Input
Amino acid sequence: MSYDFNKSFNRKGTGCIKWDCCPPSTCPQVLPMWIADMDFETPDFVIQGIEERLKHPVFGYFRPEQRFYDAIIQWHRDRFGVDTLKPEHILYQHSVLGSIATALEVLTDKGDGVLVQTPGYAKFKEIITQHERLLVANPLHFDGNRYEIDFEDMEEKLRKHPVKVALFCSPSNPVGRVWETDEIIRYVKLCEKYNVTIVADEIWADFAYGRKHTPLHTVAGSWRNRVISLYAPTKTFNLAGLVISYAVIFDEGLAKQFQDYGDATHYNNCNALSMEALISAYQEGGPWVDLLNGYLADNAAFTEAFLKEHLPQVRMARPEGTYLIWLDFRDTGYSMDEIVDRCVNRAGVILNNGRTCIDSGDLCMRMNIAAPRHLVEEGLNRLKQAFTE
Ligand SMILES: Cc1ncc(COP(=O)(O)O)c(C=O)c1O
Output
């Protein structure tokens, strides 16, 4: 298999948020490195899968077929060594965020606590707040090299607050950690001790290059029955605009509660073309994802080397997965407003403001490096100029 990740193409004018909806900048030519999708073409075997379905001229009501479940089961077996998955454990869901909303409604009441590691994915805060639940932050600890879960703080938070759900982002958006199995087991044990249901958002599971991703449910022991795991092919194959995801739930009762809530919305029916995209992606995508991870690992190493040489006052923790780089601007001596101004207006590089990544994001920015290397290099050069002139 070959694929040219260096190829760039014009995404403007497609309504894509990343390029068409950038925040205002005084710079005439902005370079978006923010929202988490990729500037790589969706691989041809996925598009061909959709084209094949288009040859049949009727798109009436339908349900996901056995092929859908088989493709997911095979993917999890091949990529993560999971051999316990059965069709009845897999629940089609429109989106991962929609699944989180459902989980909050099914598992918690207004005012109940939801534990989240911070810095964390901005939409976690949005969704917890929209549903009037209490966000309980468990700040990650930076040991000078990588971010780690502060288990003492986590236990204290579980003891002090009415936490009913722990929302676990694995691998982590935004700090790029691929959690070690031991860390995940310790996390699960604490949740079990405090009777907390786990919602494991594993949408980034396919992006691991520092170490292998461990699905939380595989090491949860008997607590697996209190775990909802969330997956999608949308990040991996750049399909977010097609909208598709699925939950994995082993406990029959919990699965029914979850399914019933989704059914009652009448919004949660699968799209025929999205299903074909998932099937083709999962049936044929393994070698492509390996190439993708290799390219992203090289982009991350390139970014790290560039910053060390040209902009050492901006520090980064080397990601073990995802395509997000957590940049720490503290040593520049600038305020958050000045940092944002230099990025957006001087460099014309659009990054995510660290403050939106819930807590612990002050003086930090999140950078998306899922782009051809020359664009990543251009972004870094622009930042270098903006912070050294
Ligand atoms: C951790 C995490 N969960 C969920 C999503 C969004 O998933 P979906 O588009 O399926 O709602 C993202 C997108 O960036 C994400 O980073």
Summary: Residues 49-284 form a domain with the Aspartate Aminotransferase; domain 2 fold (CATH 3.40.640.10). Residues 36, 95-97, 121, 169, 173, 201, 203, 232, 234, 240, 245 surround pyridoxal-5'-phosphate (CB under 6 Å). The mean pLDDT is 97. Residues 107 and 328 are 36 Å apart (CA to CA).
